[in-house]
User: Fold these one by one.
Assistant:
Number 1:
Amino acid sequence: MELPVLNNVAPEAGGCSAGSCGSTDDQMGHLPEHIREKVFNHPCYSEEAHHYFARMHVAVAPACNIQCHYCNRKYDCANESRPGVVSELHHPVQAVKKVLAVAATIPQMTVLGIAGPGDPLANPERTFETFRMLSEQAPDIKLCVSTNGLSLPDHVDEMAKYNIDHVTITINCVDPDVGALIYPWIFWKNKRIKGREAAAILIEQQQKGLEMLVARGILVKVNSVMIPGVNDKHLAEVSRIVKAKGAFLHNVMPLISEAEHGTFYGMTGQRGPTNEELQTLQDECSGDMNMMRHCRQCRADAVGLLGEDRGDEFTMDKIEKMDINYPEAMKMRAEVHAAINEELESKRVAKNAKVQLVSIDGLKLNKPETRPVLMAIATKGGGVINEHFGHASEFLIYEASPSGVRFIGHRKTVAYCEGGDTCGDGETALDKSIKALTGCEVVLCSKIGFEPWGPLESAGIQPNGEHAMEPIEDAILAMYEEMRVAGKLVHKSSEQQKVA
Amino acid sequence: MAFEIIESCVNCWACEPLCPNKAIYEARPHFMIDPDKCNECAGDFEESQCVSICPIEGAILNELGEALNPPGSLTGILPAKFAELVARQQAA
């Protein structure tokens, strides 16, 4: 049985009926050609691209004009990976130097974003000075910016000037009563405004900014932080509204909240969502909109592929010693990009051929017989299974069903075995991995040791190292077929409930 | 008549560009206010700008040494509640 590879298509809609026939390998499938053109090599927007292309953020924007209950401005820790956190603040000239050094060293780097650590548009001079210099010196780098939206309407025209064609707005609500539970205050027209009034102004500015960007043809992604009991029930409506206004992608992220972060939510015990809650909401929103599921919630100074951070290689003192000839580097970069695009294109052609084959036979016949299964993948990138179970610090989660394979999200863990002879607290790390894999029935990895095998099996998760170096989707399909033949996929309503 | 920034400042830069008198300057371990330049925004703004954007309670004091954003005024977590939460956290 051959199945198509789907992304962000609700399982019940299925295959080609979902309207993304021929490009179901890519959640960008439904987008108009001119938008796909802009996002195909953007790691933060394209699930496919994020295996191949890298991004970086420069921390030039320290100031913020609002307070969110999930943020603590005191925080600065190199071991934490989450938005708003940075180690080294840069002036625009330093930032540009850093960008050129990274782009010359990591040719896969296609995108430069300014995301903080405050709000980029609360620091317009620093932010736009950086963009201006980059648009002159490194025209082959895409520029994007992430904002809370409060002063967005004032800066839309300047963004258009520097060819910033991707903007992310964090929109957690469209209802001021919900907003009052997330934003204690904003700084607006030279005053601090609190409570519901503050939230109402912020929401109005966000929506206005979104409309202005769309009107100018600038791509808008919307980020939302899912806060259980606060806006979790409300985000499906947010999704509907921002889609209707022209946002092309919605990224629902889980709240990160720990007491030691010293945030309001951390202090007051507000919990983040479970993996299952997050997935349920993302599925609910995906009926209305293109959802993004591969976000790694990176730091405001992250460097490298999504999920990795090579910031340590590019500290200011190291950059000062580098001798960068950017015009030369640009030639090498163009060659690397062309090679990656060629590889992606050939994969796309191969997948399309497969999809069309399936649409003719097989799909409908098999549809009612088997139930969906979640599988976890250990990968270092490149779209293949190439990570040892014990070395994986995160797993990609896919769902296989009669409708095909779709990417669900990623789950972080602690690498079970850090290498060497001693797996210090291996026991607890394994427990953590097993917990992260809740709901999954299979974990595919390049290799797996003897020790974790038993505990995984007893937790109902079948380890498998037989598909090493195979493309992820192919291996999942093979595994799903193997389970079907073994009679493990018989539809049982109780089991279906558990998986869904 | 001048304000003062104290050590709880986190160097977030929010206040610096807002000062109508350019009295605030970057310094380590924390930003400073030049008392000769600060006039508490009198005549310029209804509210003192640095005080209105500062995200840290207690980081800016008036001439009497009083916190202009007293504990609880920004987070909504009043001091007694805050102590209770910290105690609970330490016990956990």
Note: Chain B touches chain A at residues 10-14, 16-18, 45-47, 49, 51-53, 55-56, 74-77, 82, 85-86, 89, 92 (CB under 8 Å).
Number 2:
Amino acid sequence: MTTISPAAGTSAAGRPPAPHVPRPTLARTFLAMMARELRVLRKNFVSTFVRVLMQPLMFVFVFAYVLPKIGGGAMAAGGGSGATFATVLVPGLVGSSIVMQGVMAVVFPLMMELNWQRSITDRALAPLPVPLLAVQKIAAAGLQALIGGLLVFPAVLFIHADGQAPSVHVDNWPVLVLVLVLGSLMASAGGLLLGTLIDPQKVQVLFALVLMPMSMLGCVYYPWAALDHVRWLQIVTLLNPMVYVNEGLRAALTPQMDHMSFWAYMGVLVVSTALLTWSATRTFTKRVLT
Amino acid sequence: MTPSPEIAVRTVDLHKTYSGPRGGVQAVRGIDLEVRHGEFFGLLGPNGAGKSTTIGMLTTLVVPTAGEASVCGYDVVKRSVDVKRRIGMVSQNNTLDSDLTAFENLEFRGRFFGLGARDARRRADELLEMFGLTERRGGNPFELSGGQAKRLMICRALVHRPEVLFLDEPTAGLDPQTRVNLWEVLRGLQAEGQTILLTTHYMEEAEALCDRVAVVDHGRVLASDTVDGLKGSTGADTVITVSYDGDVPDGVRALDRRDGISKVELGEGQVRVFATAPDGLLGELVTAAASAGVTVTDASQLRPSLETAFLTLTGREYRE
């Protein structure tokens, strides 16, 4: 049984606006919402990033350390350029982690917010147009994706057997930053679109039918150019947005390997980020406003 | 719609139809309301009457199909951000942020509404203190009791000192003691001049709290007045219902010509008498049965209340 002090009832809690009432600007509200995300991220840092780190960590451990040790060196034929498999994996695993984290960072909370208790109403009542709230969600999840990708870097750079060190060399920093940022935003915008379109009971299906094939066939473990030998797959693969993140990172990190041309990956990254953001904003608004 | 300084909330012929099969659901079918600043206004009606949809439209989260609504002079569709800046909303569900502590829920709400970080923290502590929640400051909002969670939601709605506070079924699902405590909280807010619009399906809640009440059913306002006004306007003060296991006795049928009785409704084996002078009437209706040779199966007398008003307005029992 709860009881409250008599003072509670007669408190000066809800005076009509006094002169010092804040006048929030859209930018201020937007930044305050980002500050909330950072606070939550700080609290849940380990649990948030463990799930994104484990998969690439195990992968490089098995393929760049264990297999070369036990004589599985046949794996180490990346792009026909004589590079070690670890060299192929660096951009691939960073890129796929970014995409996976971007999608998960928006889908998981959204399933709760849109369904259970419909707690999205809380955020939707903040003085921000609902489409801007969608943009804020994309920005916040994009930030998580970027952090996830950066955390994967050291793992894939330093875990390898002797002589299997990846050969990474950044000769164009702006391209690297742009690909990382655009890839993060594209993934979270795509996540918001999926999250607002699918039925919450079917999240498992999303992972099985969308994310799993997307990462296995996302040119993570081989460069796109190497698919020459399986021409049909090389063409079908072009529908997978993750390919452009990985190829962009390949261009930025391991330029010595075959990779798509700048205009191909950058063009797709820019256009699909814009398109996904636009459509996710619309579907989100439809789900929030009834 | 021209902003009128003394009107806090206004709706004109407000409609909402949810799309769906067979033409969808007409949740709200033409609601007109005016709530003045400083008023405690209640939307009273059974579940499914359209109250939550109406409050949803006023808080900008439900888009009206037709008609207009404004809060503090701002149109809820065209100026939704201006409306959101001026309102606080306590919804029926627990929509507290489970990733944050009780304190942080208030802190960030303040920052969303433009308070600086330090002011937001000060305001959060001030509200926790006022509402007796200080000891739950660092706790997860989902570990609070139902009454505490509701109080925290009220705190959160008040952080930015809204001009209008909306509460959707604030005491639904709470135990009676907690409900009465919450009423005290709301009365205190009103005493401070807070404009409040609340929906409820509890008659006694509307009677206990509201300056004015709109009785809503099937998406329409049936009557809107002060609680006393609603009781008076029904034309009857007391409603007596008697059921018989046969035909209603003839003597009862003639009652409507008598002074102090405003209406007699005859149903199959049932009579309902609306009376301003009810003394002895119930006994008379029972005795009439004996002389006509039928048995009384049920008899009730409702003292004048919002419930009798509802009965008179709709011709139906109030269904909660």
Note: Chain A touches chain B through 49 residues (CB under 8 Å).
